[in-house]
């Protein structure tokens, strides 16, 4: 092919070019005061951007242990009057997913505003072949206080991240959460955030902008299988406001869900007898329109989940709830996914919209 026929949008469209940082920045670790890092249940003890402890009391499946290094759900929160903001990132690995943009897998995105009023500003731009990058999020802003939330990558680990602000910038703590209670969400690749185009569009991050509480995303891609070890480990997390169980999609059989779900709930209840639990059945898959057995399996498993909730309520466990996940994507659900099963940003927005009133009721 001749050079005249080659198309490079990065060369032809200035808006798509990666902006180089020429700012004179002071660089800060978000682990330092007054920054606040949320979404990592063991950060205070281990000082690592990891979603499970490095050496847990309960043995983890190998895949879960590795996926725990993915930083999905992590957030950096602070208030600043900075006129410029950049991030410097050292990834554990490079972007490598065929159906998910590097901006979602390995990028950070930035929201400005207080609780319930966060507005998206921008996403890191970088060469997706790199594992170390520096990216400008904004420059030339007015000198006035802003509440900043930076969402961590959904599908890669972070060795280091640094926040770059102009030298005159003042930094103060972010607004406090409503309480120290946390919402825990255990599940699959969909919970982890596949395949949002940027981190702020995973459904747990969407919900975090609607509820002024810390969210812990405990989605493990392909490996949310309801093992008892995970139930014990989640029970160690103090001050839960709610536990959401959204792992049906990784159950390889109806029998596995029937076995694991009641046991998972029972183990968690030993430590947290009254914490609200919300069980979500899986969203619809596009292939169900063509494969009757897949549709039947989803219906059967939904009934198992509903029955598990009803049986506990009959035993006076009044703080357990069921959500029919097949309704969350709404009309034209097949248009809300990348590959028939993993939601796009539209799919995640619909999921968050469907879950918001349910959580409002549960949390009061």
Automatic annotation (TrEMBL):
Task: List the Pfam families.
Answer: GxDLY, Lipase_GDSL_3
Which organism is this protein's natural source? Answer: Paenibacillus silvestris
Signal peptide interval: none
Residue intervals of the SGNH hydrolase-type esterase domain: 180-360
Question: Which residues belong to any copy of the SGNH hydrolase-type esterase N-terminal domain?
Answer: 26-171
Q: What is this protein called?
A: Lysophospholipase L1
């Amino acid at each position: 092919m001749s050079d005249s026929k080659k198309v490079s949008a990065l060369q032809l469209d200035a808006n798509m070019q990666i902006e180089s940082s020429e700012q004179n920045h002071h660089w800060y670790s978000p682990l330092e005061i007054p920054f606040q890092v949320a979404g990592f249940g063991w950060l205070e003890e281990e000082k690592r951007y990891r979603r499970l402890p490095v050496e847990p009391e309960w043995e983890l499946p190998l895949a879960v242990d590795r996926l725990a290094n993915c930083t999905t759900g992590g957030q950096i929160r602070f208030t600043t009057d900075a006129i410029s903001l950049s991030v410097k990132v050292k990834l554990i690995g490079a972007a490598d997913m065929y159906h998910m943009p590097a901006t979602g897998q390995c990028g950070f995105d930035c929201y400005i505003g207080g609780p319930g009023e966060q507005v998206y500003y921008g996403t890191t731009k970088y060469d997706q072949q790199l594992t170390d990058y520096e990216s400008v999020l904004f420059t030339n802003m007015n000198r006035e206080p802003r509440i900043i939330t930076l969402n961590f990558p959904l599908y890669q680990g972070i060795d280091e991240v640094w926040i770059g602000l102009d030298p005159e910038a003042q930094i103060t703590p972010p607004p406090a959460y409503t309480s120290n209670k946390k919402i825990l969400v255990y599940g699959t690749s969909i919970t982890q955030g596949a395949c949002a185009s940027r981190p702020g569009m995973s459904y747990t991050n969407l919900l975090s902008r609607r509820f002024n509480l810390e969210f812990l995303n405990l989605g493990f891609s392909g490996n949310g299988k309801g093992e008892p070890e995970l139930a014990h480990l989640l029970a160690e997390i103090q001050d839960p406001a709610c536990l959401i169980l959204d792992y049906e999609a990784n159950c390889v059989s109806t029998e596995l869900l029937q076995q694991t779900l009641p046991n998972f709930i029972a183990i968690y209840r030993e430590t947290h007898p009254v914490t609200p639990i919300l069980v979500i059945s899986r969203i619809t898959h596009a292939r169900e329109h063509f494969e009757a057995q897949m549709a039947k399996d989803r219906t059967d498993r939904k009934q198992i989940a509903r029955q598990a909730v009803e049986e506990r309520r009959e035993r006076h466990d009044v703080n357990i709830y069921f959500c029919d996940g097949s309704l969350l994507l709404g009309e034209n659900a097949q248009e809300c996914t990348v590959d028939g099963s993993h939601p796009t940003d539209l799919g995640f927005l619909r999921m968050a919209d469907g879950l918001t009133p349910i959580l409002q009721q549960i949390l009061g």
